[in-house]
């Protein structure tokens, strides 16, 4: 069997795969209503929120678009914090819909600095919302969302969070950290297939929604909320993915959020220690290295394309390369969702064999 170690989609437990094979049911019937309601209640526990949670049938990016078009109007000023591919993507969506975006970029591999956000908000009091990526999957950096949020709220701004790869595996108490819209995706920490974006909306988020004039139909949160009151979604949802997510959420609640968070922290440490003991260096600043994906700087001489190919074809371990300008410069190990210590060990043994074949002499122990 292949060891799929990319930062989403992530492997599915057998129970979740079985849930996917269920016959279709009426998505406007009572049974589906009960499942949808159950999923929403379970998600609230894992989002650590008492606010609303909406299920959108889309990948995570659809959720990011929904966050923008439901809270902003064309011409609104937005501060887009970015330290990688996904931060840039969030900014680009806002820009495309007519927001006036001020980018606040940080070096890739480094975390976003709360003080720089404070200075930017001081410099332009007209800024209405701040976009933040909690875990920047492209570089393996987790931003300090608690600190960023407290700066954003010091200025009373709206906080829109891309938590696609963090929620459910890295601590993110949505209410405590006053996130107004928080977006995640079913194929990351949630042990479910791709197809659903799950989005929380705060009271302040709803107030912004009532004023926001960006065009929206499919993504309209008001429609989603009024359908949810009838235990439905406005449009036909990805029914099979909802079945799967429901079972995965039961498994997650059984393990317990604190245990899930601790497991990810422990496995991430094992991954970082493992690659360092092979003589490799982390791409991310270690103080902010992610618990769900480890990015490794490609040393001189290492052909990352060859490495990934050999790992896949000969070791049956699938790793991720670098995106955009990090192509060929880094490779990444995903460790989110359904992952164990054995999985990390398998990756390390395979790397030990494969790295020399791809041009890097394994050092250390
Ligand atoms: C995976 C990911 C996305 C993109 O999600 P899709 O489901 O591919 O649309 C966006 N942001 C982050 C941080 C991600 O990890």
Description:
- The mean pLDDT is 97.
- It is globular, with a radius of gyration of 20 Å.
- It folds into two domains: 3-7 and 257-359, Alpha-Beta Complex (Aspartate Aminotransferase, domain 1); 14-254, Type I PLP-dependent aspartate aminotransferase-like (Major domain) (Aspartate Aminotransferase, domain 2, 3-Layer(aba) Sandwich).
- By secondary structure, the protein is of the alpha/beta class.
- Helix 1 (14-20) runs antiparallel to helix 9, helix 2 crosses helix 9 and helix 11 (304-315) crosses helix 12 (341-357).
- It has twelve helices and 15 strands.
- It has helices at residues 14-20, 30-47, 60-71, 85-96, 114-123, 145-154, 203-211, 221-229, 239-255, 257-277, 304-315, 341-357, and strands spanning 3-4, 52-57, 77-82, 100-105, 127-133, 135-136, 141-142, 158-162, 181-185, 196-201, 281-282, 293-297, 317-318, 320-321, 330-334.
- The chain has a seven-stranded mixed beta sheet with strand order 2-10-9-8-5-3-4, with helices on both faces. It has a four-stranded antiparallel beta sheet with strand order 11-12-15-14, covered by helices on one side.
- The structure holds pyridoxal-5'-phosphate.
- Pyridoxal-5'-phosphate (PLP) is lined by residues 7-8, 59-61, 86, 133, 135, 137, 162, 164-165, 185.
